[in-house]
Amino acid sequence: MNKNQLFKIWAATLLPKLVVILSLFALTTNHAQTTTIKGNVTDTSGSLPGVNVIIKGGVKGTLSDYNGEYQITARTTDTLVFSYMGYKTKEVPIASRSVINVDLQEDTTQLKEIVLNAGYYSVKDKERTESISRITAKDIETQPVTNVLATMQGRMAGVNITQSTGLPGGGFAIQIRGLNSIRGTGNDPLYIVNGVPFASQAMGNAELNNGVLQNQANPLNSINPADIESIEILKDADATAIYGSRGANGVVLITTKKGKAGKSRFDVYASSSLGKTTNHMKLLNTEQYLKMRQEAFSNDGITEYPFTDYDVNGTWNQQRYTDWQKALIGNDAMVNSLQLSLSGGSQETQYILSGTLRNETTVFPGDAKYKRAAIHSTVSHQSKDEKLNVRFSMDYSNDKNNLPGADLTRQAYTLAPNAPALFNADGSLNWEEGTFENPLSYLIGTYQTDTQNLISNTFISYKLGYGLDFKSSFGFTDTRLSEIRIRPSTMYNPVYEVTSADSQFIVNDGKRKSWIFEPQISWSGSWNKATCNVLLGTTFQNLKQESLAVDGYGFPNNAVIKNLLAATYLTILDNSSSEYRYNAAFGRFNLNWDGKYIVNLTARRDGSSRFGNNKRFANFGAIGAAWIFSQEKFLENNEVISFGKIRGSFGTTGNDQIGDYQFLDTYSVTSNIYDGITGMAPSRLFNPNFGWETNKKIEAALELGFFEDRVFLTSAYFRNVSGNQLVGVPLPGTTGFTTIQANLEATVENKGFEFDFRSVNIKSKNFNWTTSLNISLLRNKLLKFPGLEGSTYRNNFVIGESLNIGKMYQLTGIDSETGLYTFYDFNDDGAITSNEDRQIIFDKTPKYFGGLSNNLSYKNWSLDFLFQFVKQKGQDVLATFPITGAFSNQPTSVLNSFPQNGATIQQYTSGNNPQAINAFSNFTRSDAMITDASFIRLKTIALTYRLPSVIKGGSANIYFQGQNLITFTKYKGPDPENQSGVSLPPLRQLTLGMQLSF
């Protein structure tokens, strides 16, 4: 057999067998090289949960859990791809390793991937045409605050927030791009919590909380800041028009935390805070005070001090001095907070359940407390084929506030410095034989609230195929307020011989329930260079509110003071109920061409039960467009400009914040009784043409990123014009009514500029530093108001000026003969009158405001701090004090009084000089009270240290936080933020806390 025959036999019989054997060997070898890879994914701050880990070229993958750990089965020759939004994607060959730890670096171009919540839809930050500002849990967690609104101060362009009081449970005023409505109550934004509208109007009764919270109790206190994942603010027409009438003043979207896939994770947050008043006013000491009082009586020609002027007539010790600021508002407010959270889940189902307890005291003497218990839960499920998505969220909180019967701040500033001691030797209240109105008597009388709030939402979506998605959400809220005020006879000076027959118990119960149902259908598709998104939906909303306030007076004894059946007299202060119904259809069309040119159209048709039959429905809409010019060829691969976008929008929104039944004929129960029957009187006239306020908005903006977006600048110009104002139009007295609710053709303009700056100053393995700056320059103007001069609004508004003004007298000096203030007589009639001579305009609108924040991290350390700044004019604190020389302490500025050279204060009076009293009253409403109230405040600072892991898969942080630490200002009063001398200013807080996860 020759070689050729042997080769043929080998090729025909042996070669196929060899091929089969080698193939089996290869398969066996390949199977043997499949292994399980484990590891941990981190960033500069520590473990990174939720990172996508997939095998390159395939679909198989997993997510890192809360501890940043992952596990995946792959071949030793595969490559793993690690990706996470806001971070650079990293590819790592397995190379026969079983443990692969990865450190991801933040992507300085993360703007292009961040997804923002726009309410009914989500949008990539890079591709948005809307004006949206955002803060996240990272910003919120650095602030030890009770109200979510406090977390936004100084952090968002165009959003001006003012805190009304430092008392727990107090309110905040928020303006998004200025005042649009002449009605003060018509400028609140729309609040959406997990897709559910949340009514922010106070449910309290002014008869109960006046003097304590100044009728500023805010339901938003019921939303626990620790449970919030993000807050988005929608500002322009393109963002708010899809909310129609509800979005005229902007929209605040609050999203709570959700669970993430991974093994179960337990988190513990515990902290303790110490709160103090921020500013100690300079007040007269005893010597200065008594000299002022003595001079006041001398100026009034009184040589024998009256019997009731105990401070100066020798009844009280004239050598005594008490710093009443320290005694009444100088205590330490303690805040203890504990939050426990359990979360985790599989790829299909995730959950989170958390509970929070917060206990806060006040700076007042006594045991006043604010307590909060909150529960947050979210369960999300996705079917394996990713078609069905279901999410249920529930937030419940119970807030109990127990405060004194009055804010003691006023007494701390005005009580005579030589007033007697607060307590007798035996610890009882000192009344100094009936001559001293002891301020601690307000601690006997109390103000208490018990607020329960439930917000729940169920969201379902299903992918129908062909780009179609069906979505539906159903939300429900239930808010209940129990408010009581107790004035027992024991809180009054014994000299008055008050008994329980004069004790008083006032109770207010309020209930507010609402539901909302919003089915939607959306479609998305793409062809060639075009990507299109369409959304259609409808809204059905119902809100019911009830309130009952009863005043009980006179009791047999104080032991039964909380039993209204024991009261001698009962007065119904309020017994009302109302229902609000709302229906709308909305739509959105978005077209993205080649990632460069984007058009967004939104429309909504609203119907509200608050308007007359002829004006019940209205249409609103907007168009927004953006050109991402950095995608053009002329900027391709540009080393300086990494991102550039021009965007603009125009549209209309509306406003129905007028209250219920304002267009109807209504009647009120009167106190008049005829023939044993209680009477009723007409209180409002019918107006079927009572319709919507409208707000036309326009915006143009430029966004620029430099050096791979390490420096990013956004600048925007906006102009909003609000018309068809919902106000009471004056009527002739012969009609029997002073006004009729109608649409007034008054027009209000808001315009301004907003700037946002962000820079990544240093980015390295161990040290990182980023800076953010925002500044807003806003102008508000009343463009027209028909019949203003003949209306009741003539002293409140001026055409061409801001809505936020005061009309003031013009101080011309102090008369050298009378020693009293003099004012300019504009109409030269020889008299100073309110209607004719208050011509000086005092604009309280800030000229600009903003915030500067920095974040620095070095290895396990991180430092965050925020400076808030406001440039504004304010009211001098003297306007909140009694007349100089009266039975009240004063700021030291009153020492510069007549007849001294260059005196700024008129001659003192004890209150017995009518001309001096009138001059002082005009003085407090004059341009002399206009002062610089600008300030720069170190709003918050947080220092965090990440401890080395002591538990496998666990982490621990300890942190120090400060709030309202330092305020730089020329303002002489307690607080330049709200210039109030009667409310407790925001407190300085120092917090020490820890966070443990395992």
Write the layout of secondary structure elements.
Layout: H1 3-32, E1 34-43, E2 46-47, E3 52-55, E4 61-63, E5 69-75, E6 79-83, E7 90-93, E8 102-103, E9 115-117, E10 122-124, E11 132-136, H2 137-140, E12 159-163, E13 172-176, E14 190-193, E15 196-198, H3 206-209, E16 228-234, H4 237-240, E17 251-256, E18 262-277, H5 286-299, H6 324-329, E19 333-345, E20 349-361, E21 369-382, E22 388-404, H7 409-414, H8 441-444, E23 446-465, E24 468-487, E25 504-527, E26 530-553, E27 569-593, E28 597-608, E29 617-627, E30 641-655, E31 666-674, E32 677-684, E33 693-706, E34 711-723, E35 725-730, E36 739-744, E37 747-763, E38 767-784, E39 805-808, E40 811-814, E41 821-823, H9 834-837, E42 840-843, E43 848-858, E44 861-871, E45 873-875, H10 914-923, E46 930-932, E47 935-947, E48 955-969, E49 987-997
Quick structural overview:
The protein is mostly beta strands.
Percentage of β-strand residues = over 45%
CATH topology of one domain: Ferric Hydroxamate Uptake Protein, Chain A, domain 1
Count of runs of 4 or more consecutive helical residues: 10
Number of strands: 49
Structural class by SSE content: mainly beta
Terminal Cα span: 77 Å
> What would you call the shape?
globular
CATH class of one domain: Mainly Beta
What percent of residues adopt helix (DSSP H or I)?
Answer: under 10%
* CATH H-level superfamily title of one domain: TonB-dependent receptor, plug domain
Give the C-alpha Rg: 34 Å
* Largest sheet features: 22 strands, antiparallel, barrel
Low-confidence stretches: 3-32
Overall residue-averaged pLDDT value:
87
CATH architecture of one domain: Beta Complex
